[in-house]
Known about the structure:
Largest sheet of chain B: none
Strand content of chain A: under 5%
Distance between the termini of chain B: 31 Å
Strand content of chain B: under 5%
Shape of chain B: elongated
Structural class of chain A: mainly alpha
Radius of gyration of chain B: 14 Å
Helix content of chain B: over 70%
Radius of gyration of chain A: 21 Å
Order of helices and strands of chain A: HHHHHHHHHHHH
Structural class of chain B: mainly alpha
Number of helices of chain A: 12
Distance between the termini of chain A: 31 Å
Helix content of chain A: 55-70%
Largest sheet of chain A: none
Largest interface: A-B, 19 and 22 residues
Oligomer: heterodimer
Amino acid sequence: MTDGIGNPRDLALSGAAAPAAPAADTSPALDTPRTRGDGPAIPLGGDATLDRHTRIALLKEERAIARRFEGGKMWIYPAAAFTCYAIWLSFFPLAIMGWLNLPLAFVLSTVFAVGGYVTSHEAMHSNIARHGTKWRWLNEWTGKVSTIIIVFPFSMARLMHLEHHYHCNHPEKDPDYPDRANGPWHAIYKTWLNRQPGVDGSIHIYKRILAEMGTREAADALKDTVRLQLIFMAVLFAMAWSGYAIEAALIWWLPRHIGLSYIRFYLSWAPHHPREDQGRYGNTRLFKSRLGQIGSIGMETHLVHHLYPSIPNHRTKEAYYALRPILEKRGVHCPEI
Amino acid sequence: MQSAVQALFKIMPFLFGIGFIAPLIAQTMAYWGWSPPLGLSPIGFGLLIGGPWGLYATVRGRWI
Lengths: 337, 64
C-alpha cells in the first residue's frame, strides 16, 4: 500500500527513496500532547490520522529536503575500503615474517571488519556509482572487497540487504528478522546463537529466501557464499597447520566474529527494535547511542536511511535534523541525537 | 558436486575442530609455556579437545 506514487520495490532497487505507506504508527509520540510552537494549527495525531492531501504534501516536502543530502563526498567509501583491505591483506605476510604487532593487527582487523560493512552498504545501494555510469566498477569492487573480512560476499549481502528494505520487520521475509531480541543482552546472545551451525539463524533464512527468489542472482550469491567460506576455512586450516594458528585467529577468525556481532547488534537489532512495526515511519527507530554516531556506525539516524537509501551514511544525521519537523508531523518520536 | 559440498558443510564443525581449533590450542599452549597433561604432545592434546568438540558441534548444532 502506498500513496499511489510508485512501487516501493522498484524505487528501493534503484537506490531512490521508497514512497510512503500510510503506516499504522504506534509511536509513543502519538499519545503525547504536542507542545512545540511550530506544530500545525490543526493537531495532526500522526500518519494514520493524516488525510491523503496532507500526507502527499508532507511527502513532497520530505523528498525535497532529502534530495539535498544525497551524494556528496562518496570517494571516501572506496578510498577507505581499498586502503583498509590492502592493510589487512598485508597483515598475513607480515605475520608470517614475524614483523607484525599482533594485538594492534587484531584491533585494526576488527575495526576493518565492522567498517567494511559500512562501505559495502553504500555500494549495495549503488550510492558510489549507479548502473550504467562510468564508475560503476568502482561501486561493485568497493562492495566486493569490503565484506571479505566478515566472509559475507557482496552479492549475498546486497540481495539480503535489499530484501530487508523491501520487507523490513516482516517475520518471514525480512532476512534480518532472526536478530529480533527482547533487550541488548538478549540481542548480543542472538548474534552468537544465529551463527551456530544447527540453529535456524541467519544463513538458513538467507538460503530459504534465495530459494524463494529463484533468480540467477540468487543462485550466484549462494555459490559466492560457498566459495568464500571454503576459502576462509582453507586459509585458516593452512595457516594453523603451518604454525600460524594464533596469527590466523587474531587477523581473521576473531575479528570476523566480533565484527559480525557488532554489525548485527548495531546495524540490525538496535535501529529496528522491537521489530513490531512494518510501516515506513515505524519500522526503524531513532535513538541516542552511548557510543555516539560514529560508535554506533551512524545507526542513531537509521530511519533516514530507510526513508532515503540514497543519502550516504555520513550525512544521515545532518539530514535527520533537516527532516525532523516533517517526521514530527508524521508522529515519529524524534529525540535529540 | 552440490551434494559433495553439502556433505562437506555438514561436517564442517568437525573439520574446524581438527583443522583449526586443535592447532590453535597447541600453539596457544606453547606460547604460554603450558605443558599438556598425561604426557601428550601439544597437538595431541589439541586434537583431543578440538576433535570431540567439533564432533559435538556437528551433532548438536551448537558449539556450546
